[in-house]
Amino acid sequence: MSKETKYTEDNIRSLDWKEHIRMRPGMYIGKLGDGSSADDGIYILVKEVLDNSIDEYVMGAGKTIEISIQGSKVIVRDYGRGIPLGKVVDVVSKMNTGGKYDSKAFKKSVGLNGVGTKAVNALSSFLELNLLERVNLLLLSLVKEI
Asked: Residue 70 is part of a domain; what is its CATH number?
């Protein structure tokens, strides 16, 4: 007969949002992969960012979407409304936070769950947001803690 495994309060853990995404990336982007397959997670991460740009375009807020790939760096620029400056950190670091939970700002949207940019932030080695709102410029660089 096998030895009984103990299950106690000590086995229960609470993870912060980054830990959870990094420990269970499949819940957010499917398999991680190395980029050699079309369904590797890196392409899902790029799609998450691109979907936000498409949402801006469809809403008439952005007229151009530029995508640039430089080695392992992907740059997406959409000339849309951007994330309101006072909520940028929340949008990229607090799960289930986003502007698409009501229909006031977005009449149509690809992403609805408030998870996409958080997964990009947690699983990227580097994330930089450059946002220009009226005359305010915010440069936010988040470097993955290793």
From this structure: 3.30.565.10
